[in-house]
Amino acid sequence: MRSDSNTTPVSGPGFLVISPSLDCNNACIFCYDNYRVKGSRPAASAQEIAADAARMAARMGVGAVAVSGGEPLLYAELEQLTRLLKAAGLFVCVMTNGRLLARAQRLERLLEAGVDHFHIPLHSDDQAAHDAVTGVAGSFAQTVAGLANVAEVRARRPLGLTVVHVMHRRNYRRLPELVDFVAGFAPDHALLSHCIVEVQSPREHLALLARFEDIAPFVAQAHRVGQARGLPVYVENVPPCMMRGREAICVDFHKFNRLAVGGFKAAGERGEGGFEPFEQSIKSGQRTHADQCRRCAIQDFCGGFYRSYIEAMGQPDLEPYSVQELRSRQAAARQTS
Ligand code: SF4
């Protein structure tokens, strides 16, 4: 997330993710909240959520909040929540599927409330493929209209935009075309996110996972397309060793070494408190390393990958770094600087 001239500067590196409700108007095939019972409790008030968020942000020393869901635009008090978070001095990113931003008036109300940044997923550059992922006919048209509205606003005033694309077995071969399409909306970044399957997720989600070595060439090609179009492209949930020469685009590396990430999300009808803690997954029990990682020179700085990957594919075929390789690369970097 970036800090614009008219917005609050981010203090410490990292951010808080908060989810007022799990209600959603999409039903994405990989949604890692699918295992949660989503029936909504009466949502907490914007005042309660903002007060908890401000306390937690202060404790973590971060200055940014990402409001997620479910679909946060379905939370009736989102504008009020945004105003309160801004009043607490926080940078506000809204992680929305973008469909309701097709209504320009809703977008305008959110901007008036103070939203600094939108984080919007696009599942394909092809309408049928996108709608097959969300399970909602017409969702592609609405998300694209929402993206166009945000792009139009960005042409006249500062507003952050990240377009995220969840990579899975059915869509990774079109990553270059996807990035080319996304570039048309001129976001700050495109984020290619390897599909997350959590320990608690339905086991049929495992079939969505694609091998790192199969995805890597398409990510590299998509990165080149982004460079040609002036669009920074990042990747997450893919180990840096699978992005040889492009490690800097691996968001996990930054999250593991520099960023504090935490928060809380609506618990759904689980008989628990209204919210449960959101754990930084890269440092949680969701992650693991492979046998090969034991001989990797950067293991202490690498967050590995999701445990579910081994469940789906067995041990991955990784490319551990040797000390010699790191020394050679450092020497080469010194010579060119
Ligand atoms: S620790 Fe493992 S996953 Fe991480 S870069 Fe090294 S080999 Fe790859």
Automatic annotation (TrEMBL):
InterPro entries tied to this protein: Aldolase_TIM, Elp3/MiaA/NifB-like_rSAM, Radical_SAM_PqqE_MftC-like, rSAM, rSAM_sf
Cofactor(s) listed in the protein's UniProt record: [4Fe-4S] cluster
Gene Ontology MF: a single term: iron-sulfur cluster binding
Signal peptide: none
UniProt entry keywords in alphabetical sequence: Iron, Iron-sulfur, Metal-binding, S-adenosyl-L-methionine
Organism of origin: Desulfarculus baarsii (strain ATCC 33931 / DSM 2075 / LMG 7858 / VKM B-1802 / 2st14)
Boundaries of every Radical SAM core domain copy: 10-232
Superkingdom of origin: Bacteria
Protein name, per record: Radical SAM domain protein
PANTHER family: PQQA PEPTIDE CYCLASE (PTHR11228:SF7), RADICAL SAM DOMAIN PROTEIN (PTHR11228)
